[in-house]
Amino acid sequence: MTPEEMRQALLVSEKTGLPNRRAFDESPADEWVAMVDVNGLKKFNDEYGYEAGDLLITRVAEELVGAGLDAYHDKGDEFLCKGSSYQELRDKLAQARAWLKEQPFAVMCLNGRVADLPGADFCYGIGTNLEEAERSLKNQKEAQGLSR
Fold it and tell me: pTM for this structure?
């Protein structure tokens, strides 16, 4: 592997295939940033296992990209997105959320059975920088009774 190939590999999340936080930090800044957090991943992992949780994270990544978002996998169940306007991010995130919630999610349970789960969900916050987006996300999760 060449040094450039190694460098590029360091910019991709192994779990999702999306660019990672380092790639986010190194890419040109947009005017608006969104922070996305998958709801209930710990409970999901406890009930269905970590492999199922990883599949859920991958599914969220696919929906974010499918909605046309410039998405990055930050860590665990957190994603970052960039956009040129608040409206653009809000509309695309709403679309990704709707798709994710509408589609059942089949997983292999810890007991060896396959279960069709209701669609997953995520919360997001939008701001002109990461700090604003994180505050917005925290406020949204508190309003919904979810802990961050």
Answer: 0.86
